[in-house]
Amino acid sequence: MPATERIAIGSIFVGLLVLGLKTLSWWLTGSIALLSDAMESTVNVATAIAALIAIRVAARPADREHPYGHHKAEFFSAVLEGVMIIVAALLILRESLAAFLEPRVLDAPLEGLLINIVASCINGWWCWVLLTRGRRLRSPALVADGHHLLSDVVTSVGVVIGVALAVVTGWSILDPALAALVAVNILWSGWKVMAASLSGLMDEAVSEEMLEKIRSTISDHATGAIEAHDLRTRHAGPKTFIDFHLVVDGQTTVDQAHDICDRVEQALKSHLPEALITIHVEPEHKAKHSGVLVI
């Protein structure tokens, strides 16, 4: 089983555990702020399931209907996660409005807060796993899930502090006010997840830093060629697509040109193991005297 799939399955179990703890915390206290925290964990479970499905689809090999593979399936998962985060935020806002109209004294606040703190620690640990492994495995679905959990951890800390203040001061209005702030933060988190995923669906190029690395690699390893131009990149899940035109001397044989291309591809894949590279070889009179000059 691929590492990304194992991590996605782990997210489901962690999400269910945290959801159970936060639901117990809300049930003990009756806090709307703690309810909002539990509702966000409901989204965590749903999106973890969506991420697992997307990762399995993305891992399928290319076929006749999808000759470039199924890698973009992970971006659809991340967009779905963003939508669900926003829906959860709107539901929390509705609950906080009702609590504003009828504030109530919290029950068993100490026990509820301690349980919520344990759940937040578990979330924090799993967030670190998702972000570090997701980036290493170049999985948008895992990284998006990690960013969402990071937002959940931050808001959980705020919820614990706010509920504690409500108990100490006796200001019951702090509870729904805090829930409303959590909802606004979740809305912002959902928007960021969707924006990052849409860039992948729109075939956004690699970062400037990575593009410069690609250019310098071509320049350093295309010895025997003259230049490379019309360099284009895009990313889809763990895959990076790179294509460009490589200009060679008119006297270069097919075998020699092929050797140059193999050398460049090998060098590029040392930096981007999952890269899919297309090189179009052109004769010298096609040179544009721009792009990447070969050293």
From TrEMBL:
Membrane topology summary: Multi-pass membrane protein
Keywords, ordered alphabetically: Membrane, Transmembrane, Transmembrane helix, Transport
Localization per Swiss-Prot or TrEMBL: Membrane
A Pfam family per the record: Cation_efflux
Residue ranges constituting the Cation efflux protein transmembrane domain according to the UniProt record: 11-202
Primary location recorded for the protein, binned into one broad class: membrane
Residue ranges crossing the lipid bilayer per the database entry: 7-29, 41-59, 75-93, 113-132, 153-174
Domain Cation efflux protein cytoplasmic per the UniProt entry, residue ranges: 207-284
The keyword Zinc-finger appears for this protein: no
Family, as annotated: Belongs to the cation diffusion facilitator (CDF) transporter (TC 2.A.4) family.
The name this protein goes by in its record: Cation diffusion facilitator family transporter
Organism name: Paracoccus aurantius
